[in-house]
Amino acid sequence: MRHHGYVLVRGLLSSADLDPLLREITHVLAEERWLVSDNDPVQRIANPSAACADGEPAYKAVNDKVFQLQSFHKLPHHVLLQNVMKLLVGTELFIHPKSAARLVFPRFDRGTTKAHQDHTAVGGTEQSFTAWLPLHDCPIEQGVLRVKSGSHRFGLQPTAGKTGCIVNGTEQGDEWVGGDLSKGDLLIFHSLAVHEALPNQSNRMRISLDCRFQNYRQPVNPGALVFTGRSGRSWSDVYRDWLSDELKYYWTKLPLELNPSKLQLADLAANAEPVEMRSRYGRILERIEQLSNVDAT
Ligand SMILES: O=C(O)CCC(=O)C(=O)O
Q1: Is the CB of 128 inside a 6 Å radius of any atom of ligand 1?
Q2: pLDDT tens digits for 53-62?
Q3: Which of 21, 22, 134, 158 has the most CB atoms within 10 Å of its CB?
Q4: CB 12 within 8 A of CB 81
Q5: What are the two backbone dihedrals, phi and then psi, of residue 258, each rounded to the nearest 5 degrees?
Q6: In this structure, what DSSP letter does residue 25 have?
Q7: 153 and 225 part of one domain
Q8: For the segment 12-69, what is each residue's pLDDT rounded down to a tens digit?
Q9: Which structural domain, as residue segments, surrounds residue 260?
Q10: Does 132 contact ligand 1 (Cβ within 6 A)?
Q11: pTM > 0.85: yes or no
Q12: Last residue of a domain, one of 216, 235, 263
């Protein structure tokens, strides 16, 4: 990790760990008609006419349903995953609550993740790590993730405006590294490691998770704990259909150091530039304050 900025762990998780979540997610996709109807949903055969990408309303509507699944939030807490991440961050492990599901349509360029560094969006300490895991075998042609080896040693790299993406060919680092992954493999990378997806050239959806981890004694971006958008979505909306209280608000029990702090958030809500950012900081502060009143289980 120190030298290359990434580690590939083969076969950490089993089918028994991953299949139930894959089944639940593909059930959601089938209901939304993202999959062709004459195949078993776990085959992930995409309906091209439904193709959409992260950042688009149609994508968000379905991704939000996946985000509500209790099993989706359980997977990053898998004990084997925690043990591996503790080797990197120490025993004071903080599992970020906002993991991401990636639902990537085939042959759909807009849906292919461009080169970026997670620290741009995740913030907090630079010593945070993403574990990227497909829920199925993911050969190169199904749009696997690849990493620019050694790129974490160059700090934050210039992006194309506010997109957060690094212009193709300007990434600093050594060679691009990627290859076929199998179900159960885990690609772990540093928050400053440049990475991107290869195009999904198959006829199946690529379904994977990004889970983020750090030491809880190091600063955490409050935006990683709450929903920052205007929709007003809250954790209680996410938990609405959960069958147990396990893992609800678990991070509120940890002694997290927020950066920006609540005081700084209040200042940013009043004075941030550009002005459009002020309401976003205001929302984050309000939602962080609301979390202080929840009863964590
Ligand atoms: O899966 C993808 O296409 C993107 C994943 C990613 O950028 C991440 O894990 O940070």
Answers
A1: no
A2: 999 999 999 9
A3: 134
A4: yes
A5: -85, 140
A6: H
A7: no
A8: 999 999 999 999 999 999 999 999 999 999 999 999 999 999 999 999 999 999 999 9
A9: 219-297
A10: yes
A11: yes
A12: 216
